[in-house]
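Re: [ENG-882] Designed sequences occasionally contain unexpected residues at chain ends

Forwarding the minimal case from QA. Structure tokens:
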């Protein structure tokens, strides 16, 4: 005899003699197994609910008894409803009404003024959720009658709500903006933490909808110093409203206001140029875009393809693997885009400003700050007097290659020396930049076998006045970056040996000529393997013979390009 189906765990089959003891004949589980009818199940469920109800009643009676024994007021006990579990058919709303209101409990200790302010705040939040601007205006008027002023968060809510409403409501928004400006001048605005940017964003969004771009810029300037978000918000709001002329006006303002736009924002501006049939503007925007954004996401590339095709230009995605940058579609070579002389001068000026700021920060050690400034000036003077190097080596980056200084591993002077000798053997003049801390006695005591190598490196540093310049508080990145920018300006092309390409640098220092390296272990010797830069720049660029023809690289794969130069 086989038992099968749901009578057995996991659907297994057992002979009667093999049944587990739990399912053996005579066991209480087996006796009642499969005999429950729907009516019996319903009865058991009802009995279970009744037991819970009785238990709740007993607990409530015991609680009341304890309170009476402690001498508590019986009136409070009688007024407290007995908590019972909800049954089928019970009025849920009546039970909810009997529960104590948590909000009322919270407001019990507040003053009348604070309680009213909270009520208004809750009502405005409700209007925000329901997108009901007219109701929100009524609440604001009620607040004014009771001499309550809006705080920054509430103003931000109102401006965002007004911006999403129709034109009929914009007049109320303009009145509110005038009132806000008046309160700001009179310093009546209630300040709350972290709401200033939200308020500014709401104002910019509202003013962009109504076409009041100057008011938006003025208000933002008074309230928030950061400029990136301002241009982004205004451009995206105008893109949503299809106000293309306004968007391009904002773009022009953003250029004068020093706003760094994002990839998405440039694309919106380009689409605005297409919609207004002002295609000449597209190339102005692309030239500004190429200075900030080097490679593009696939979605942006697809959109740019559609933009160029709308101007009757042929575009095609292609692969460029040629070391000279030969494009198989347009049959032209990509070019190398170096920093212009103006950009190099700006980069040099930036280094000097950074050093000056550091020296100013050392208030308690003014002499040290003066010494640092003097040391850096000495290094610059040496660069002016000396013959320009062909190669600048970031010594620390080379010396720590494949090592873990955070785990106590020491800099490898041998690796630095091998890079230096590699260039000397090829008749190229290297300039080594290393911090003086790498040549202290404590740093050298664990490297006695590299003493002769260290001596050669020290001689190089002394020749470049690096020994006295690289004091403890100095940053060696300043020296090799400054030297790279200065020598590129004077000589035109100088290589920088470092795997640290400072990709987060404001001036996109990756436009300098970087040489990456690694050490190939063969036959017990560690030889440097250097990767010199290609003959073309991996960044969006116009064609040399036609500024209306462009190539755009993909950010996901270096060999993928969009050719709009066919």
């Amino acid at each position: 005899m086989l038992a099968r189906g749901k009578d057995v765990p996991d659907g297994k089959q057992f002979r009667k003699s093999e049944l587990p003891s739990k399912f053996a004949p005579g066991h209480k589980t087996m006796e009642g197994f499969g005999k429950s009818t729907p009516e019996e199940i319903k009865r058991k469920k009802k009995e279970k609910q009744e037991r819970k109800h009785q238990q709740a009643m007993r607990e409530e009676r015991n609680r009341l008894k304890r309170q009476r024994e402690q001498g508590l007021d019986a009136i409070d006990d009688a007024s407290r409803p007995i908590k019972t579990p909800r049954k089928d058919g019970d009025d849920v709303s009546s039970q909810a009404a009997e529960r104590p209101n948590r909000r009322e409990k919270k407001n019990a200790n507040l003053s009348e003024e604070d309680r009213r302010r909270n009520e208004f705040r809750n009502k405005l939040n409700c209007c925000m959720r329901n997108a009901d601007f007219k109701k929100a205006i009524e609440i604001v008027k009620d607040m004014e009658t009771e001499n309550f002023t809006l705080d920054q968060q509430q103003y931000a809510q109102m401006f965002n709500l007004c911006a999403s409403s129709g034109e009929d409501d914009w007049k109320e928004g303009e009145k509110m903006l005038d009132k806000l400006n008046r309160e700001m001048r009179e310093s009546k605005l209630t300040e709350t933490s972290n709401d200033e940017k939200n308020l500014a964003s709401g104002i910019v969004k509202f003013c962009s909808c109504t076409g009041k771009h100057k008011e938006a810029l003025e208000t933002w300037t008074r309230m928030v110093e950061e400029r990136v978000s301002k241009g982004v918000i205004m451009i995206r709001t105008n893109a949503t409203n299809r106000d293309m002329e306004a968007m391009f006006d904002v773009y022009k303002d953003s250029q004068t206001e020093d706003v760094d736009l994002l990839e998405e924002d440039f694309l919106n501006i380009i689409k605005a140029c297409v919609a207004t049939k002002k295609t000449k503007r597209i190339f102005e925007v692309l030239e500004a875009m190429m200075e900030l954004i080097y490679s593009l996401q696939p979605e942006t590339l697809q959109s740019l393809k559609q933009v160029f095709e709308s101007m009757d230009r042929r575009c095609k995605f292609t692969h460029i693997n040629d070391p000279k940058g030969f494009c198989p579609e347009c049959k032209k070579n990509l070019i190398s885009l170096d920093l212009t002389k103006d950009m190099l001068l700006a980069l040099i000026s930036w280094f000097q400003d950074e050093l000056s700021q550091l020296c100013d920060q050392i208030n308690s050690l003014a002499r040290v700050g003066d010494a640092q400034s003097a040391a850096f000036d000495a290094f610059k003077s040496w660069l002016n007097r000396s013959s320009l190097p062909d190669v600048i080596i970031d010594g620390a980056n080379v010396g720590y290659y494949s090592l873990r200084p955070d785990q106590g591993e020491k800099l490898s002077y041998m690796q630095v020396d091998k890079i230096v000798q590699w260039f000397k053997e090829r008749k190229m003049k290297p300039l080594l930049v290393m911090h003086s801390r790498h040549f202290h006695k404590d740093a050298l005591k664990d490297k006695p076998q590299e003493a002769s190598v260290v001596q050669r490196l020290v001689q190089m540093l002394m020749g470049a006045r690096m020994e006295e310049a690289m004091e403890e508080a100095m940053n060696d990145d300043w020296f090799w970056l400054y030297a790279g920018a200065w020598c590129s300006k004077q000589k035109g092309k100088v290589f920088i040996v470092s795997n640290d390409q400072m990709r987060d640098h404001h001036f996109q220092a990756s436009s300098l000529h970087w040489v990456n390296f690694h050490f190939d272990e063969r036959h017990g010797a560690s030889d440097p393997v250097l990767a010199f830069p290609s003959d073309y720049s991996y960044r969006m660029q116009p064609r040399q013979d036609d500024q209306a023809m462009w190539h755009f690289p993909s950010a996901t794969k270096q060999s993928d390009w969009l050719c709009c130069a066919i």
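QA comment: On inspection the terminal residues look reasonable. Residues 38-69 form the longest helix (32 residues). Proposing we downgrade this to a documentation issue.
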